[in-house]
Write a structure and sequence with these properties.
Layout (H helix, E strand, L loop, with lengths): L9 H19 L27 E5 L14 H6 L4 E5 H9 L8 H4 L12
Antiparallel strand pairs: 1-2
This protein binds zinc ion (ZN).
Length: 122
């Protein structure tokens, strides 16, 4: 008999669960978990891209890249933990990614412009 190689792809399964979490967050319609609504409600109906800074993305509260530090058995476990996920603005999520350390709740008040990325001196 013939095998269908795409059926058992773990990345596909992973995406499936993440899609479910995403749909659940969208259905809840919460405010942004990062700025707590300071930038207004999340625009759930817009595509998630840089052209729509208030669009909806799934934010990992504890950064998946630091899964070991937070006691997860794997990066995937951190990404799939429902309790580690919250709805966020595309914009806020992008800022947070750059400032994983010491990210503070009052960030929404301090944010006056989009900071430029600096590579520092070589
Ligand atoms: Zn926000």
């Amino acid at each position: 008999m013939k095998m269908t190689p795409t059926k058992n792809n773990p990345r596909y399964a992973n995406g499936n669960l993440r899609r479910k979490h995403r749909a659940r967050l969208r259905a809840m319609g919460c405010e942004c978990g990062i700025c707590h609504g300071r930038f207004g409600p999340i625009h759930y109906d817009e595509p998630s891209d840089a052209a729509h800074p208030l669009s909806f993305v799934v934010d990992e509260i504890k950064p998946v890249a630091k899964w070991k530090q937070f006691g997860y058995p794997s990066a995937r476990a951190a990404a799939e933990d429902w309790n580690n996920l919250q709805a966020a603005h595309y914009f806020c999520n992008a800022q947070k990614r750059d400032k994983i350390v010491n990210f503070s709740l009052d960030f929404g008040q301090k944010m006056t412009k989009i900071p430029s990325v600096s590579d520092g001196s070589w």
